[in-house]
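agent> step 3/5: call structure_predict on target 'NYN domain-containing protein' (Quercus suber).
agent> reason: downstream docking stage needs a structural representation; sequence fetched in step 2, passing through unchanged.
tool.input:
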Amino acid sequence: MRPPLLSPKTLLLFTSSNSSALLVKISHFSTSQSSSSHYSSQSNFSARRHEEESRNVRVSVWWDFENCNLPAGVNVFKVAHTITTAVRTNGIKGPVTITAFGDVLQLSRANQEALSSTGINLTHIPNGLVL
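tool.output (status=ok):
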């Protein structure tokens, strides 16, 4: 009797630097144990199953925009698209929810509107509040 396969987990690292580039890194890890012979004998089935499972993965991105600032000069309208593209590139096809946390008053009104209009949920945490 084989142990049940556990869902792979994904870690999304969203970083910025002083440059105008936005870096999105996705790392996968899994707690499942599998043998390569199992995959080779059922590769077609596994591929279909993986496809189906990838559509069921719900991704929730939590972005602390105070400690991971938008780089100067970045097109704010492309932030959500960049994150979603990184997720899709890694084979995850389920829904993506992005929530930005921090003191919203530190963002310009234009950036607040741009982020919100692209589907990013803004959650205001007043400056100095520790959760």
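agent> step 4/5: record observation. The two ends are 45 Å apart (CA to CA).
agent> proceeding.
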